[in-house]
C-alpha cells in the first residue's frame, strides 16, 4: 500500500488497539441514502461491527427498511442516533447540514466523533455549527464504496487527529482504499475518484472498439477490455509505491 505521511508505526499500534474497540463501538448514520447504505454494508460485511451496534435515521420510511432487514436499528429522530452512538456519520445532502447540526448539537459531546461526507461542506463550517472542541472528521467517499471498491479520503478537524483517523481507516477499510491527508486533498480526490470512473468507461469503450474493428463481437470485446483494465489496475495498485514514494 502507498506509504502516506500519516502512516507511521504509532498509527499501526493504535490500529491494532482499536480493532477490538471497533467491535464494541456504537455507530450511527444520520441519513439512510445510497452512501449510508453502502458504507454500512461494507462495515457489516467485514463482520467488524454487529448490526445491533448500528443505528440509522431518516425522516421517512423510504430507505430505512433495507437497514432494518440487516438487523440495524432505525429511527426517525436524529438526536436518538447521536445519543446512542460514539461515531456519527452525517450522510445527508450538503444543503441539509446546517439544519441537521442545529437539531443535534445539544446532544453532541467531546466523546463523539462526527464524520461528515457532505460534498463541499468544510471542516471550518462543521466546527462552527457544532459545539466547541467537537472531534470532527470530513471524509469524501466515492460511489464504488457501495461495491466495497471505493476510494475514501479523510481529513481531521482541529480537535481530531491521528487516533481518530486511524480508527476511521480501520472501520472503513472494507469499503475500499482509505487514506488521510490535508483538507485540500478532498477536492482533488472528488475530481480524481468521482469523475475519474467516467474516463475509465470511455477508455474501455475505445479499447473494445479497436477489437470490434478487427472482427471481434462487441460484447466479448467489452468484457475483455474491462478485464484488461481490472488487471492493469491491480498491478498499478501493487507497484505504485515503488516509483512514487
Ligand atoms: N452518492 C455519492 O456518490 C456520493 C459521493 C460522495 C459524497 N456523497 C455525499 O454523501 C451524502 C449523502 O449522499 P447520498 O447519495 O447517500 O444521498 P441520498 O441517497 O439522497 O440520501 C440522503 C438521505 O438523507 C435523508 N435525509 C433527508 N433529510 C434528512 C434529515 N433532516 N435528517 C436526517 N436524514 C435526512 C434522506 O431521507 P429519506 O430516506 O427519508 O429520503 C436520505 O435517506 C451527500 O452529502 C453527498 O454529498 C455522495
From TrEMBL:
It comes from the Eukaryota. One of its GO terms (biological process) is L-proline biosynthetic process. It catalyses: L-proline + NADP(+) = (S)-1-pyrroline-5-carboxylate + NADPH + 2 H(+); L-proline + NAD(+) = (S)-1-pyrroline-5-carboxylate + NADH + 2 H(+). Keywords: Amino-acid biosynthesis, NADP, Oxidoreductase, Proline biosynthesis. Pathway: Amino-acid biosynthesis; L-proline biosynthesis; L-proline from L-glutamate 5-semialdehyde: step 1/1. NADPH binds at residue 78. InterPro entries: 6-PGluconate_DH-like_C_sf, NAD(P)-bd_dom_sf, P5C_Rdtase_cat_N, P5CR_dimer, Pyrroline-COOH_reductase. Belongs to the pyrroline-5-carboxylate reductase family. This is Pyrroline-5-carboxylate reductase 3. It comes from Triplophysa rosa (Cave loach). The lineage of its organism: Eukaryota, Metazoa, Chordata, Craniata, Vertebrata.
Amino acid at each position: 500500500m502507498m506509504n502516506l505521511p500519516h502512516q507511521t508505526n504509532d498509527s499501526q499500534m493504535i490500529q491494532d488497539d482499536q480493532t477490538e474497540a471497533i467491535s464494541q463501538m456504537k455507530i450511527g448514520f444520520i441519513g439512510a441514502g445510497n452512501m449510508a447504505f453502502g458504507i454500512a454494508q461494507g462495515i457489516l460485511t467485514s463482520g467488524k461491527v454487529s448490526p445491533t451496534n448500528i443505528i440509522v435515521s431518516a425522516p421517512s420510511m423510504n430507505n430505512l427498511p433495507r437497514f432494518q432487514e440487516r438487523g440495524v436499528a432505525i429511527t426517525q429522530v436524529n438526536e436518538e442516533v447521536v445519543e446512542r452512538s460514539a461515531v456519527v456519520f452525517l450522510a445527508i445532502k450538503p444543503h441539509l447540514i446546517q439544519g441537521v447540526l442545529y437539531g443535534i448539537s445539544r446532544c453532541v459531546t467531546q466523546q463523539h466523533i462526527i464524520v461528515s461526507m457532505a460534498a463541499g461542506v468544510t471542516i471550518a463550517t462543521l466546527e462552527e455549527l457544532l459545539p466547541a472542541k467537537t472531534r470532527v472528521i470530513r471524509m469524501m467517499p466515492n460511489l464504488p464504496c457501495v461495491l466495497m471498491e471505493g476510494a475514501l479520503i479523510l481529513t481531521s478537524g482541529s480537535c481530531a487527529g491521528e487516533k481518530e483517523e486511524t480508527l476511521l481507516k480501520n472501520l472503513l477499510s472494507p469499503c475500499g482504499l482509505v487514506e488521510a491527508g490535508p483538507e485540500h486533498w478532498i477536492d482533488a480526490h472528488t475530481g480524481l475518484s468521482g469523475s475519474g470512473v467516467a474516463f475509465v468507461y470511455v477508455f474501455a469503450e475505445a479499447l473494445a472498439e479497436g477489437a470490434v474493428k478487427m472482427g471481434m463481437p462487441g460484447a466479448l470485446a467489452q468484457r475483455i477490455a474491462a478485464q484488461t483494465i481490472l488487471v492493469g489496475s491491480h498491478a498499478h495498485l501493487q507497484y505504485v509505491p515503488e516509483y512514487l514514494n
